User: Fold this.
Amino acid sequence: MLERDLQLAADLLKQVHSQTQGREGYVQVDFPPQALLQAETVIAEAQKIWQEVGWQNLMLRIPATPIMLPVIEQLIGDRINVNATFVFSQRTYEQVFDIYLSGLERLIQQGKSVNDVVCFTSFSIGRLDAALHPLTSFGITQAKTLYQHSQNCCQNARWKALQGRANPLRLVWDCTDIQPQDAWRYIQVLAFPGTAILLSKATLEMYQEVSLLPMSVIGSERVEQMLTNFPLVAISLDELVDQLVHEEMTRSLNAFDQLLDEIAQKRMR
Assistant:
């Protein structure tokens, strides 16, 4: 049943996927949070879903935790698209970048094409700001740092050897947990070339109505000007990232358990 639903959803977006040469039009699959604590379980289930659905515009959402990083590498090496989440820091981005390259290199060594394998990295800006204080806008500053670091990684000799054959590791700014009325100050700063902004339905509808969504990429000078207005805070980023990952996993587990309880109650009724 799940596989059929995914096929129908992928069919709806197949034209978008084709028209954008594989940049857009993906259907994302989440795993039960409990499964994300067991590497072998996720690999087996991911391979099963990928084979049964059979569409290239499918993407599996995997957190970039220490347990799941080898899983992401394995899936890339199996030609399975991945959205690596919980990428809050430069350190985590580097880890995902490295395993993405390793998965692609393994495919090339096997004589296989890599031009249709895709990996995204998602950074939840609202979560980072909420962990400190929304008015610090540290999330935007960290997003700028990650974007600049991603450009530096593209100078990596390993990546240059793959350039022209492989898709870049794409940054996604996840703004789904930001209130619609607050989202514009994030949207106008985050339109970096080659990245994507993930918005909630309410936010998208709000700004479509007033035609405020950016129609083109903001120039680097404008970005620099806006970022200078955001105060910086002194924190231990590694400790904060560990805290955020733990909170996100806990939140996912609680939400999933609540969903199962609601389904059970409806079945009883």
About this structure: The radius of gyration is 19 Å. Residues 215-235 have pLDDT under 50 and may be disordered. The chain has eleven helices and six strands. Residues 2 and 186 are 34 Å apart (CA to CA).
